[in-house]
């Protein structure tokens, strides 16, 4: 009897061990940026695993272009076994997958309440039928970063930068350059970021809301954006640069009085400690000829998505639900760890947003970002943003060279339609 009992116990123990091994869940996450998304995902993984020891979350650092290439190659070849359980996708690109591979991403609206997040992020990660797929992460809320010392030399105060138009901003730029020798801002002719910013501030894009029609020729926001660039060029208040390194040099070396970028540029501005106390933030200038134009916009940003083909899809949703979607302690810690401006509607529990930032003269910049983030016009970027911009970039050069803008936009409309087949 004793032998039988021992054998039974051994068998039972083995079965329990085997069951435990089989029950263990492994989640694989793909994301990019070792200074931002990757550490955030690993912090989320550590917090989740502490509560769920049966789950292992592995975060793989892969460059964004490589992630897109891997996803397209695997999905195009129907090789879904090589895909991760969770993947980070830029907001401008996700519609490509929702349209091109409609079974790939898992709808999460029944599990994660999209009302937790700011409207423009939810719209960006929803399909035309209203199904929501993404767990919004970082905001690209855009700001006018100001060298306040330069503006003060030209006779301006921070209050003067509130509720202004781009035309007023240009006039200020002329006086700042006269007083300091610095350009108003820098611009990369190959990067259409500032054009995106101006269009979204008025709730418009290169395509119609359903993504099925190119809207370039009669797009008032795009037209004014290009005219603003031309006015700045003609006034000689813009300096040109090429690429990230030269962008950093424009403000770190004091060549420009402002930087108009997403809030993610903040750590790069703060990197030059010699400029501590000289900077402030203000809302965007507003387009003056476009109905419903605002001072608020977005540049960049991404969201977490679950692979619908994964056997662990439900576990992946639970991981995101417990961490990125609801853990305000994590969100609070990420403010100081990676300068995260998150996409949550309710930021009242994120106390680090209320910290005075001495680099910005004691201004509570994250509190400002959070306030502006809720006001950004919501729109769908559609599946053709980058393809259309390959055509629009030529239009920018033609307008800057002095060609008639209406003719340029008509030509660009036709070329974009051919480019994307709409």
What would you say this structure looks like, in words?
This protein has 422 residues and is α/β, with parallel strands linked by helices. The chain has two domains: 24-139 and 299-355, D-Maltodextrin-Binding Protein, domain 2 (3-Layer(aba) Sandwich); 142-297 and 384-420, Periplasmic binding protein-like II (D-Maltodextrin-Binding Protein, domain 2), CATH 3.40.190. The protein is 44% helix and 11% strand. The protein has helices spanning 2-23, 37-51, 64-76, 94-100, 119-124, 148-153, 166-180, 193-201, 220-234, 244-252, 266-270, 313-322, 328-338, 365-373, 385-400, 405-420, and strands at 25-31, 55-61, 86-90, 135-136, 142-147, 185-187, 238-240, 258-262, 279-282, 302-306. The strands form three sheets. It has a five-stranded mixed beta sheet. A three-stranded antiparallel beta sheet has the order 8-5-9. Strand 1, helix 2 (37-51) and strand 2 (55-61) form a beta-alpha-beta unit. Helix 8 crosses helix 9 and helix 15 (385-400) packs antiparallel against helix 16 (405-420). The longest helix has 22 residues, at 2-23.
What structural class should be given to the helix and strand makeup? Answer: alpha/beta
Q: What is the CATH superfamily of the largest domain?
A: Periplasmic binding protein-like II
Count of separate structural domains: 2
Q: What is the beta-strand fraction?
A: 5-15%
Q: How many DSSP-defined strands? A: 10
Give the helices and strands, then pairings.
Blueprint: H1 2-23, E1 25-31, H2 37-51, E2 55-61, H3 64-76, E3 86-90, H4 94-100, H5 119-124, E4 135-136, E5 142-147, H6 148-153, H7 166-180, E6 185-187, H8 193-201, H9 220-234, E7 238-240, H10 244-252, E8 258-262, H11 266-270, E9 279-282, E10 302-306, H12 313-322, H13 328-338, H14 365-373, H15 385-400, H16 405-420
Parallel strand pairs: 1-2, 1-3, 6-7
Antiparallel strand pairs: 3-10, 4-10, 5-8, 5-9
């Amino acid at each position: 009897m004793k032998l039988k009992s021992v054998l039974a116990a051994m068998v039972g123990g083995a079965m329990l061990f085997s069951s435990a091994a089989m029950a263990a869940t492994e989640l694989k996450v793909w994301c990019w940026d070792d200074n931002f998304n990757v550490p955030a995902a690993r912090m989320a993984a550590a917090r989740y695993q502490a509560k769920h020891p049966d789950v292992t979350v592995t975060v793989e650092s892969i460059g964004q272009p490589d992630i897109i290439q891997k996803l397209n190659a695997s999905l195009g070849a129907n090789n879904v076994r090589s895909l991760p359980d969770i993947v980070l996708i830029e907001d401008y690109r996700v519609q490509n997958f929702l349209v091109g591979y409609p079974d790939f991403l898992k709808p999460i609206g029944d599990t994660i309440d999209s009302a937790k997040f700011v409207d423009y992020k939810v719209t960006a990660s929803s399909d035309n039928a209203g199904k929501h797929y993404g767990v919004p992460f970082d905001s690209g809320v855009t700001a006018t970063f100001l060298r306040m010392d330069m503006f003060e030399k030209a006779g301006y105060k921070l209050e003067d930068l509130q509720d202004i138009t781009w035309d007023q901003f240009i006039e200020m730029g002329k006086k700042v350059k006269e007083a300091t020798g610095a350009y108003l801002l820098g611009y990369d002719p190959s990067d259409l970021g500032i054009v995106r910013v101006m269009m979204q501030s008025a709730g418009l894009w290169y395509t119609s809301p359903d993504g099925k029609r190119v809207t370039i020729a009669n797009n008032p926001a795009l037209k004014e954006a290009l005219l603003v660039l031309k006015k700045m060029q003609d006034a000689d208040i813009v300096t040109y640069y090429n690429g990230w390194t030269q962008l950093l040099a424009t403000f770190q070396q004091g060549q420009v009085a402002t930087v108009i970028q997403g809030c993610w540029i903040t750590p790069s501005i703060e990197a030059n400690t010699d400029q501590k106390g000289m900077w402030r933030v203000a809302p965007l200038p507003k387009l003056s000829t476009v109905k419903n134009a605002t001072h608020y916009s977005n540049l960049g940003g991404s969201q977490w998505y679950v692979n619908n083909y994964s056997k662990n899809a439900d576990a992946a949703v639970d991981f995101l639900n417990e961490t990125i979607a609801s853990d305000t302690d994590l969100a609070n810690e990420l403010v100081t760890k990676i300068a995260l401006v998150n996409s949550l509607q309710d930021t009242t529990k994120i106390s680090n947003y209320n910290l005075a930032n001495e680099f910005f003269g004691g201004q509570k910049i994250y509190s400002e970002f959070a306030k502006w983030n809720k006001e950004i016009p919501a729109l769908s970027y559609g599946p053709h943003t980058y393809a259309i911009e390959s055509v629009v970039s030529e239009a920018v050069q033609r307008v800057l060279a002095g060609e008639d803008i209406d003719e340029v936009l008509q030509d660009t409309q036709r070329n974009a339609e051919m480019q994307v087949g709409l």
